[in-house]
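Hi there, hope your week has been kind to you so far. Thanks so much in advance, here it is:
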Amino acid sequence: MNLGYVVNGIILGIVQGISEWLPISSKTQIMITSIYALHLSFNQAYALGLFLEAGTVLAALIYFRREVWGILKALALRGSRYDYMMLKYVLIITILTGLVGVPLYLTIADSIKGIGIGLPMVLLGLILIVDSILITFSRLRYMPRKNLEDLRIWEVAVIGVIQGIAALPGVSRSGVTVSAMLLLGLNPEDSFKLSFISMIPAAIGASMVPILLTRHLFNTLVTDINAYTMVTAIVIAALISIALIDALLRFARGRRIALLTALLGALAILSGVVSMITGFG
């Protein structure tokens, strides 16, 4: 086994493990890394970014194993009230994500290039920074207190639509969903938790795309960068993701909502600018 394959996998895993959970487009970061560092083609880099979702899915399944097990029990009609609530939320979000995201990607995503790629994230970042300023100067004691149990169906539907919009190039799924929930008044910890759990079915679908729909491209990808690199990247992405999920949830439990919102906004703007400059989504 060539040590270079492992090193490449570690680099890709770190990039995927960090970028998936922050409001920066993981697709953009993986494409930049794999095109310039591994000399992959644009299509190969995009397929690799989709496939590496497997690492972040693994991390989410491990970290939220109790919630996932509860959802599975609810599917078997053996869950608690909380389990049924989470099942309902995940189903609504997943269905609307597919209904919005798939047509959006097929009809619009390929036509968005140049400055248009990063524009949605820049606008989102500006909204979040303005909101953090309002919190600081107008609502010093403000803290979103709405719990998951307080969400109304239309609000859950909005979250699903927003996650579907993340199919657009340059748009971060975690960034737009967490931001939407914070703006809806959901407390930060539950915002991150629901966003991360809702990511699981969407990411499973995304990671299977290059295998099921573009098998020839996936086979050339394995040949060009080696299976050792891909396996290493998935493992490292999972380990980094678990640590980052825990850190974000710990931070979200604090009362520094203005700082949290401002940081999310700054990262969103940075992601959008990078997408504009590189043209990658």
